[in-house]
Design goal:
- The complex is a heterodimer of chains A (about 130) and B (about 400).
- By secondary structure, chain A is α/β, with parallel strands linked by helices.
- Chain A contains 2 helices and 7 strands.
- In chain A, helix 1 packs parallel to helix 2.
- Chain B is built from 15 helices and 14 strands.
- In chain B, helix 14 links the parallel strand 13 and strand 14.
- The mean pLDDT of chain B is about 95.
- The chains are: A alpha/beta (about 130), B alpha/beta (about 400).
């Protein structure tokens, strides 16, 4: 699948997929990388080193700092794939240097798939279901 | 994106390393989102201030920039800090937290940012005009300035707002363009909205449904700025709504194209369900009002209700330092304190470490606060209107 490059880099990892938007501030713990938003479909799961797939960001504009902090604390997702990346997430991944691509049909990616994210060429490939 | 010669020089590092790095971020965002050029901004609101929110990596990021001499070019205000910057000891904020918080404030001040610390800059001296281009973060302030004032800003992240303040401009895309400010869903409201909390419940429900769309509300007959503030804040928290229009009430509502929109009806049932959903607790250990920061009208309302009363549990009302000054002069603060409450300035319940202050259940009248408290402050929530919250404490 071809999308739009938000932040460069390349990574292959297991996908963690949310159909709901993610608000990083108040949604993911900056020290552990675990989703803490009550009632969120990913609540209790860690995003560390995975390819985090979600439609779009939501909530607080402090989210950029949370993404940056997750990276500095070594618990950030290895890559991010969105339907539509908004400024908050874009700013975070650019500062943190996390590969990110949007304008992808994320419905095709299932939780647990092995995914190749080649942000340099704005490509997403599902390696194994 | 087209860059002027001066702007290209910034990218070449002619104006220092910090400005080069931040300008590069803005150009990158402009390229992603199809901006044609940079545009000057009238003011900036910087989010990401509380130590609890940005923690040690955030402090290092800010101190690094401040130490390299970064300075803002336009009026820039600051979001709430993690504590009352003057009365933190009296209210019981932890000392080690305070030390880190003061480091953050110092870094911002050194960059020339006005350390007002409020999420309602428009009530505290940073007031844009209709159609003015600005670069604001703080999701509720973005919503208010776009919707109620008709100024133009995207939902900036904390660092991209800071970059705009230091570079004096922002890439021209998204909500800076008139064609991108058109509504794409109509919300027909068929319910009585009496309390500010009702507007919060409506906002929470709609934000959850429409995510990042631009809603056009009809049949909200009247609402003051406090109520519009509550509505927008909740929509920006449960969703990513940066702009909404209300028929007859907001400045762009008459100007936008609203024919043939998909329509969603919201009635009493949806609001009742939202109240039920947001209530996870029973007896609050503390009631916290002022999310977003209370206006003077909201403080005076609370003061009227607490006159000669004694509270079972403390009530905080969070506000900006400027509103607190006025409340002090009017005697509102004294009335609230005599009843056992606090007028807390510079901070709010979401960004302060209330879970470390022994509180487990918090009563709120804000849809935004009800959205964040369970995850970020590990609180059970009682979400109700101000009358119900206070009556339970008398």
């Amino acid at each position: 699948m071809k999308g739009r490059m938000i932040s460069p880099g390349k990574i292959e990892s297991v996908a963690i997929v949310s159909k709901e938007p993610i608000g990083f501030y108040g949604g993911i713990d900056i020290k552990t990388g675990i989703v803490i938003e009550k009632g969120h479909p990913l609540e209790g799961r860690s995003v560390k080193d995975k390819i985090l797939v979600f439609p779009c960001g939501k909530g607080s504009t402090v989210g950029s700092y949370v993404i940056y902090g997750l990276q500095k604390n070594g618990v950030a997702p290895g890559g991010i794939i969105n339907k539509e990346t908004e400024t908050i997430v874009a700013t975070g991944v650019i500062l943190a240097g996390i590969p990110c691509v949007d304008q992808i049909e994320i419905e095709k990616i299932k939780d647990g798939d092995i995914v190749l994210l080649d942000a340099d060429n704005a490509l997403v490939k599902i390696q194994k279901n | 994106m087209y860059l002027t010669k001066e702007e290209e020089k910034i990218l070449d590092g002619d104006e220092g390393e910090v400005k080069e790095r931040l300008f590069r971020l803005l150009v990158r965002l402009g390229d992603i989102y199809g901006a044609d050029k940079m545009i000057p901004v009238g003011s900036v609101q910087v989010a990401g201030v509380s130590y609890k929110s940005i923690s040690d990596p955030g402090i290092e990021f800010l101190e690094d920039m401040a130490s390299k001499g970064a300075k803002v070019k336009v009026l820039a205000y600051l979001n709430p800090a993690g504590m009352d910057l003057e009365d933190w000891e009296k209210i019981g904020f932890p000392k080690d937290f305070a030390k880190n918080q003061l480091r953050i404030m110092n870094a911002f001040k050194n960059m020339g940012i006005v350390v007002t610390s409020t999420c309602t800059p428009y009530l505290a001296g940073n007031l844009p005009r209709f159609r003015e281009h600005i670069a604001w973060s703080e999701s509720s302030a973005v919503s208010f300035s776009n919707s109620v004032i008709g100024a133009r800003t995207n939902r900036e992240g904390g660092p991209s707002a800071l970059a705009a303040a230091i570079c004096g401009g922002t890439p021209n895309y998204g909500l800076h363009l008139w064609e991108k400010r058109q509504p794409n869903i109509k919300i027909k409201v068929d319910a009585e909205l009496e309390f500010n909390a009702d507007f919060g419940a409506l906002g929470y429900f709609v934000g959850k449904q429409v995510k990042n769309k631009i809603p056009y509300f009809t049949r909200i007959e009247n609402a003051n700025t406090d109520q519009l503030k509550a509505l927008g804040a909740a929509m920006a928290a449960s969703g990513a709504v940066a702009l909404y229009h209300v028929e007859g009430l907001t400045p762009e509502a008459d100007l936008v194209e609203k024919n043939d929109l998909e329509t969603m009806n919201v009635g009493k049932r949806e609001l009742d369900e939202t109240y039920e959903k947001l209530n996870s607790g029973k007896d609050p250990d503390v009631v916290i009002l002022g999310c977003p920061h209370a206006s003077l009208r909201e403080i005076s309302t609370l003061s009227d209700k607490l006159k000669n009363k004694h509270l079972k549990k403390p009530i905080w009302i969070c506000t900006s330092r400027i509103m607190k000054e006025a409340a002090d002069r009017m005697g509102f603060t004294e009335i609230i304190e005599k009843a056992g409450g606090y007028v807390v300035a510079d901070t709010c319940m979401v960004v302060s470490p209330i879970e470390k202050m022994g509180y487990k259940t918090t009563g709120v009248n804000s849809g935004k606060a009800a959205n964040y408290l369970p995850g970020f402050c590990k609180q059970e929530v009682v979400f109700a209107n101000i009358n119900k919250l206070i009556e339970a404490q008398l």
